[in-house]
Each structure stands twice: as C-alpha cells, then as structure tokens.
Amino acid sequence: MTHPRHHLDAVIHTPARFSIMALLAAVERAEFRFVRDTVQISDSALSQHLTTLEKAGYVTIRKAQAGRRTTTWLASTPEGKAAFTRHIAILNQIASPPSTPESREPAPQGEQSE
Predict the structure, then answer these.
(1) How far is CA 90 from CA 16, 22, 107, in A?
(2) pLDDT (tens digit, 9 = 90+) per residue, 14-35?
(3) Which CATH number fits domain 4-93: 2.40.440.10, 1.10.10.10, 3.40.47.10, 3.60.21.10?
C-alpha cells in the first residue's frame, strides 16, 4: 500500500500556491491585488506562482482595461478546482486516524491492584 502523501499535487502543495488555490476555489474570480493582499506575498512572488499554476492549467489570467488602468483577474479552471479538491481529500486522508485495528496502538491499561 502506498502512503497518501505520494498522491499530493506538487504544484498545489507549496504553502503560497495552496493559499492561492484555496482563495480562488471559493470565488468565481479575484483581482490580482486582492489575492496578493489576502495571501500576503509580493507582486513578483504572486506572479511567479501564478505562472506555475497557469502552466499546470489550474488558473486563468485575464487582463481588462478600465480607463487608463489595467486590472488583472484570476480564476481557477475546472481542472484547477478538481485538482484542489483531490489535494484536500488526500490531506484529510493523511490527517484521519488509521482505520485498521492492526495500525492502532493499544489503549493504555489502568493500574492493577494487588
């Protein structure tokens, strides 16, 4: 049997990318600055993580012009949402107590009186 950790998504598993995916999984789309401020990382770090997530097919990045200002919108793709859901399920599996009797430690026995 293989330990569930071997099935974790390496792209999502880093703390910053995990945080980005968690945020994007909860909304239809989010503005770059909102994600940056919520996840508390720099513009350049967020850009690098987004590039990795976009290459994996997990996020889309769209730019929209509003007057003179360009807004960058981020969204999780259906593949990204599915990957994030699988990743969470594996983390929950790892965090769950063992389900087989052989893998449990015996309960401590009370003191016996003489």
Answers:
(1) 18, 15, 27
(2) 999 999 999 999 999 999 999 9
(3) 1.10.10.10
